[in-house]
Amino acid sequence: MTDARMRSREQERTDETESESTDGCPECGGLVVNDEEHGESVCADCGLVVEEDGIDRGPEWRAFDSKEKDEKSRVGAPTTNTMHDKGLSTNIDWRDKDAYGNSLSSNQRQKMQRLRKWNERFRTRDAKERNLKQALGEIDRMASALGLPDNVRETASVIYRRALGEDLLPGRSIEGVATSCVYAAARQAGVPRSLDEIADVSRVEKAEIARTYRYVVRELGLEVAPADPESYVPRFASDLGLSDEASHRARELLKTAKDKGVHSGKSPVGLAAAAVYAAALLTNEKTTQAKVSEVADISEVTIRNRYHELLEAEDTIPV
């Protein structure tokens, strides 16, 4: 009976201590903050150490750069929307070799082949997952061909998942919706690609891409700002081997054109290509309309027309 009373009193004291540390400082009632570096809970007002020798729940090792941190980490890869199962399933390598690089025996190869087959069946259990797997593979292929960064691939995958979840695919091809998602994601990330560039790496026609893109943006309520001609300039200038001075001059031409309303109703790709060509001439760097046309995937006639319009917008430059 005595032991039970003692345990009861100890429990009451523990509860009181926990309530005090939760509610505030036991001395002044001030805010108690955790000092993780020293493993203490300290009152921010009077400085009283409420608790000490706290448990460090972080790793027991230290790392001084990101590479060392990745090497010492004992957790798997993070989840990603670019894979239909978000990267949580098992992936069996296609090479018939063990962890040391040695070839497997014939019996082991047959066993691994059976495991691959069943693993693939379990990863795509229904038509929706097969659809998602095919589409995300297309998104990854097109993003690689266009040189788009990982964040664009993630965004495009999320847009496609939303379209699939809201049943927007019936009557439209998987490739068409996947391509429109890449186009929308690139514009949202500020690294747009023209419809011609998108169509070159896609398996569907340009008209279908444009039609599906408008439908997906409207149905999902995506906020996609109009493409800015200036966002194309760094890529065009880099592909043509132009200097930073020429790239800066091209952006100045486009800013002047936007201030005077010359860009209204014009293709942003055509304006960017013409600005790069004009800037190259103004900075005495060698390039031709044919080279710019090839890099921007736009006709030389369009470049010439936009070129004259850009120069006319510059008050200080005679045409």
What does this structure look like?
With 319 residues, this protein is mainly alpha-helical. Among the domains are: 80-90 and 102-225, Cyclin-like (Cyclin A, domain 1, Orthogonal Bundle), CATH 1.10.472; 229-316, Cyclin A, domain 1 (Orthogonal Bundle), CATH 1.10.472. The chain has 13 helices and three strands. The protein has helices at 2-23, 66-72, 106-123, 127-146, 150-165, 174-188, 195-201, 206-220, 233-240, 244-259, 268-282, 289-296, 300-313, and strands spanning 32-35, 40-43, 49-51. A three-stranded antiparallel sheet has the order 1-2-3, covered by helices on one side. The longest helix has 22 residues, at 2-23. The chain starts with a helix and ends in a 6-residue tail after the last helix.
Summarize, please.
Residues 21-51 form the TFIIB-type domain. This protein is mainly alpha-helical and 319 residues long. The chain is 57% helix and 3% strand.
Give the topology, please.
Layout: H1 2-23, E1 32-35, E2 40-43, E3 49-51, H2 66-72, H3 106-123, H4 127-146, H5 150-165, H6 174-188, H7 195-201, H8 206-220, H9 233-240, H10 244-259, H11 268-282, H12 289-296, H13 300-313
Antiparallel strand pairs: 1-2, 2-3
Helix pairs in contact: 4-5, 4-6, 5-6, 6-8, 10-11, 10-13, 11-12, 11-13
Please state the average pLDDT score: 83
> What's the number of helices?
13
Q: In the CATH hierarchy, what is the class of the domain at 80-90 and 102-225?
A: Mainly Alpha
Task: Trace the largest sheet across and list its strands.
Answer: 1-2-3
Query: What order do the SSEs take from the amino end to the carboxyl end, as H and E?
Result: HEEEHHHHHHHHHHHH
Sheet having the most strands: 3 strands, antiparallel
Give unreliable regions as ranges: 13-22
Terminal CA distance reads 105 Å
**Structural class based on helices, strands and sheet pairing:** mainly alpha
Measured by DSSP, the beta-strand proportion falls in under 5%
Q: Considering DSSP H and I runs of 4 or more, what fraction of the residues is helical? A: 55-70%
Choose one word for the global shape.
extended
- CATH architecture classification of the domain at 80-90 and 102-225: Orthogonal Bundle
**Fold-level CATH name of the domain at 80-90 and 102-225:** Cyclin A, domain 1
The total strand number stands at 3
User: What is the gyration radius calculated from CA atoms?
Assistant: 30 Å
